[in-house]
What we know:
Shape: globular
Structural class: mainly alpha
Distance between the termini: 17 Å
Number of helices: 5
Helix content: over 70%
Amino acid sequence: MITSYFLVSEEKDVRNISFLTYSISAKPNSKQPDVIRIRSIVEDLLSEHSPAYIRRKSRVATKNSFERAILMYFALSIHNANR
């Protein structure tokens, strides 16, 4: 998450609000290997450890909501740890 932000951003600081907006924003059809890897890690994490996700993942909107919540949690954790 941090490396993909550093590749695109001119400001190399995770304390900025631009880090949060980049990390949380949707990146559909991305070809970047970092973004693809993040998606697979989040999918594996949710599939193995979230019974609610396993029951409801048939809908695309629900899957996107769960993934966005996980990404938001990690982005806010990184942001708060570096203040």
